[in-house]
């Protein structure tokens, strides 16, 4: 299995090289050179299998010969044993034909743990063999950072630097990162937005001298292993609801477009998916894109679903690449141009392809709060504000066949956003018993301006001293 860049100018590489590389040297994102697939019978056979087994089968399609099958299976076993629910990502019924896919039973209570617990083990495997210590940098709007710190803290072959936007994440999210005491962890509060943090990370990857000096890697969803691992739960959810015989529709609370793109990947692998609705908060670039055919950046506004306060959705480039029929020159032109103009007019043929599967729905702050309360009143479920964006969007889903199950991804545990839940529902969500109480632990982080050069200088010093 080989990986190519969406901008077409980087040499094809194998799975483990693509994992470690993060961004491709031409600024593009790695994708498989061709799509592997499952037969219907193979997908049907996932029903009733443990999550780790399905994960090993799906990941196996992308890993190729880079990791022996029995070692990959062991990694999946270990990764998913860290989850507090035996089904790992259980499906819960909300109402007639409406379901929640709970992705928050991992150690940091958000869907990021699903991929990150596996990534920590993948890095250990490859870095140990290569006698190499890498510097991982990640941008976070709250959840990726905590999951990455949890997955990589204390590992001897990697150090991790998490950049988060100052004052724009919840206290619980911040503490999952900043209370880590391990020497290989550094957290940086950036005086800017998540988009600034992500731009700094991408800029760091494009500085060859810096990249080599610190042996840079990235665990945001630019990393193909993140996407591959996130595609697994679409299979387990679909087969639990009658797939692959009957298609399923998914509603995905969206920010950086990693999770929704992972649904697209599952469909490429052969899973029948009727529709993927990208549910956004008022940072609605993707909702507008899938309804209007223009990818047009807006200003970032702070919402009660802060992990989705994003206006530059990294993985949209991967979908665009597919929609322009894998034309790397066109993708490079469009996304380099977007860096300057903040605008891509999607060619009509590419937009038509996107609309075969994707829809967008933006949810207001008032509707998000109302949905948390109505979900509690009608179903007894306490949901977090990101999940509420998805549930509100699900009410607008229109399918030609109304019997198709609609599954909303529940991307975070409500205890991660106690203030928003209390304001909407008048109660404080209980933290799961297995989660350590971080509220009184000392925090450790730097504050830096949103300057690539300043952050790179910080990372160089950190890498040289740890
Ligand atoms: C709780 C939560 N929901 C939804 C999202 C959006 O996911 P994505 O960035 O993959 O679109 C995020 C952040 O990524 C998140 O942390
Ligand atoms: N919402 C994310 C933003 C980063 O997304 P990623 O999937 O690309 O890592 C977060 O919580 O940090």
UniProtKB/TrEMBL annotation:
Uppermost EC category: lyase
Pfam families tied to this protein: PALP, THR4_C, Thr_synth_N
Chain ranges of the Threonine synthase N-terminal domain: 2-80
Top-level taxon of the source organism: Bacteria
Gene3D superfamilies, per database record: 3.40.50.1100, Threonine synthase, N-terminal domain
Residue span(s) of domain Tryptophan synthase beta chain-like PALP: 92-327
Similarity comment text for this entry: Belongs to the threonine synthase family.
Name recorded for this polypeptide: Threonine synthase
Organism: Caulobacter henricii
């Amino acid at each position: 299995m080989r990986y190519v860049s969406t901008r077409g100018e980087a040499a094809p590489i194998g799975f483990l090289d693509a994992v470690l590389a993060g961004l491709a040297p031409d600024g593009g994102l790695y994708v498989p050179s061709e799509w592997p697939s499952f037969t219907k019978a193979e997908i049907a056979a996932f029903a009733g299998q443990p999550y780790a087994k399905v994960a090993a089968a799906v990941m196996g399609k992308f890993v190729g010969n880079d990791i022996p099958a029995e070692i990959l299976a062991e990694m999946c076993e270990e990764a998913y044993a860290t989850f507090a629910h035996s089904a790992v990502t259980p499906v819960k019924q909300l109402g007639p034909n409406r379901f929640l896919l709970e992705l928050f039973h991992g150690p940091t209570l958000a869907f990021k743990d699903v991929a990150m617990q596996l990534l920590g083990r993948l890095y250990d495997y490859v870095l140990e063999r290569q006698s190499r210590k890498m510097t991982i940098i990640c941008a976070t709007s709250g959840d990726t950072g905590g999951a990455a710190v949890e997955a990589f803290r204390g590992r001897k072959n990697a150090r991790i630097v998490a950049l988060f936007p100052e004052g724009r994440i919840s206290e619980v999210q911040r503490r999952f990162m900043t209370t880590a005491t391990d020497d290989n962890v550094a957290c940086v509060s950036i005086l800017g937005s998540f988009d600034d943090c992500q731009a700094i990370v991408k800029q760091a990857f494009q500085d060859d001298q810096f990249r080599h000096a610190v042996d840079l890697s990235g665990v945001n969803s630019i990393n193909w292993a993140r996407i591959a691992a996130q595609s697994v739960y679409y299979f387990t959810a679909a087969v639990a609801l009658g797939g692959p015989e009957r298609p399923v529709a998914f509603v995905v609370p969206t920010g950086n477009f990693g999770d929704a793109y992972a649904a697209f990947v599952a469909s490429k692998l052969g899973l029948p998916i009727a529709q993927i609705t990208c549910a956004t908060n008022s940072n609605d670039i993707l909702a507008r894109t899938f309804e209007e055919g223009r990818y047009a950046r807006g200003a970032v506004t702070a919402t009660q679903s802060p992990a989705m306060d994003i206006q530059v959705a990294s993985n949209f480039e991967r979908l665009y690449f597919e929609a322009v029929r894998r034309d790397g020159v066109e993708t490079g032109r469009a996304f380099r141009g977007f860096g300057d103009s903040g605008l891509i007019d999607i060619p009509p043929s590419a937009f038509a392809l996107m609309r075969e599967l994707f829809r967008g729905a933006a949810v207001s702050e008032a509707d998000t709060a109302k949905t948390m309360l109505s979900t509690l009143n009608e179903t007894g479920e306490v949901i977090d504000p990101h999940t509420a964006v998805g549930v509100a969007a699900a009410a607008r889903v229109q399918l030609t066949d109304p019997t198709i199950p609609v599954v909303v991804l529940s991307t975070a545990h409500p205890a991660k956003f106690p203030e928003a839940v209390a304001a909407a529902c008048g109660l404080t969500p209980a933290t799961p018993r297995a989660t350590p109480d971080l509220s009184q632990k000392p925090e450790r982080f730097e504050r830096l301006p949103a300057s690539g050069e300043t952050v790179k200088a910080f990372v160089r010093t950190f890498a040289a001293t740890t």
